[in-house]
Amino acid sequence: MSVARKIAWEKFIPAYEANDLDNTVIDDQNDQDNSNFEEDEDNEEGMMNFVNIQDLISMRKIRTPFGYYDINDQFSPYNMFDCWIGHTNFRIRQSDFHILNKQIDGIGCLKVISPYRFFIGIERMFTFPSVRIQIQKELCNNLEFDQDINNVNNNEIDNVISRLNEALFNIKDSNKWAVFVGKDGNIMTIKNSEFESDTDYQKELTTLKLLKNGNIITYDSL
Predict the structure, then answer these.
(1) DSSP code of 43?
(2) Is 125 a residue whose pLDDT tops 90?
(3) Which residue has the higher pLDDT, 96 or 74?
(4) Does 115 share its domain with 188?
């Protein structure tokens, strides 16, 4: 019996290259304070060392799946994209890579980093939930739509996902939100700013969760 495909998601946090530069700066500042700048020549040399260390800090590297980048490099994947790591319970095959690389809208960069793990960077005009739903549909086959939609063509499903991305884009900055995607392709959204109290929001959220004819995404389920 085949095991249902699953993907767990982890927000990518870049690793800094190991160094003690911050401590060095603190020590250097303390040394300067203790000297009270008694001699202009020593002061000038001390300040030069401090500037050099600051330059090094501003050029500190971050480690990404694509190599090391300056922390301020605008072309670093971390600065260009919304970055996530997908952990799978199935081996990532060439066909899976092809789907991620060619068929999922919104993926700006992609790298397989182990047989069960892949890295994606999401473009600015797309949202992680909409990309995630596409991946679930294509790789895990666990996104359900009514048979009528499935029988029409993939363009209708693509239209649903496009409208979903637009809906998510409009509410993603809210503190709390939820999106319900019906099997018939209808989309309903709620956000806490629309309600007078959090209690009212939670009541409406409970109503959405009780619906059985679709899928729900909430701000805290990512």
Answers:
(1) H
(2) no
(3) 96
(4) no
Contact assessment for residue 149 and residue 159, using Cβ atoms and an 8 Å cutoff: no
Q: Are residues 111 and 157 in the same domain?
A: no
| CA distance linking residue 93 with residue 139, whole number of Å | 11
| 69, 176: one domain | no
Top pLDDT among 9 and 29 is at 9
List the one residue out of 40, 80, 46, 48 whose CA is nearest residue 64. Answer: 80
Phi, psi of 91 (to 5 degrees): -70, 135
Task: Print the domain residue range for 150.
Answer: 144-222
* Domain end among 93, 120, 143: 143
What is the DSSP track for 135-164?
HIIIII------HHHHHH-HHHHHHHHHHH
Residue 52 token pair: 């050099």
- Per-residue pLDDT tens digits for 80-123: 889 899 999 999 999 999 999 999 989 999 999 999 999 999 99
Choose between 158 and 49: higher pLDDT.
158
Residue 201: alpha-carbon gap to chain centroid: 25
Q: Do 108 and 207 share a structural domain?
A: no
